[in-house]
Amino acid sequence: MSLPFRRITAAAVFVLAGGTSAFVMASPAYAGTVTVNYSCEVPLTGTLTGDVDVTITAPATAAVGDTVEITVQTGPAPFTAPIDLEAGSVTPSIEVTVGGAQTGSVTAQGAPNAEPVPANTPITPAPMTGSLALTSAGQVDLSPGPITATAVTIFGTFAIPCTPTSTPPVAASIQVS
Asked: What is the pTM of this model?
């Protein structure tokens, strides 16, 4: 094979691979942010409420039968840590409400906090991920639901439930074909 032919072949493979890559990426992730008012039951403190920005990321399109990953990131909780919390002591989860062409919910789980949280400091949960099996064609809507932070402290393990005070808006939608 001559050198010019090899260069042309390599260039053609590169262009084809790039075209294939663009085809696979044709369904970019969609991320939407909404503000939700949460009411949280905090041990040692009581009930606290406040607005939390919640971003849900999911693919913009998918097919019936696909299982897609959903990622949820929230802003700081509407409360501060009443005591010092060690790294690895707070694990978040959120229930994402599924509506539209498909109904139900999916739980997204986050990793424990990587850094210590000093007392009187807001807690910002790690990103949470979950998987959703798509069963129906049409627009599948995703809305934030209850959030729970499980905290391991010197006083024991506590679940800190936070529930929306009203029906949260849709943060992301997947067009399922």
From this structure: 0.80
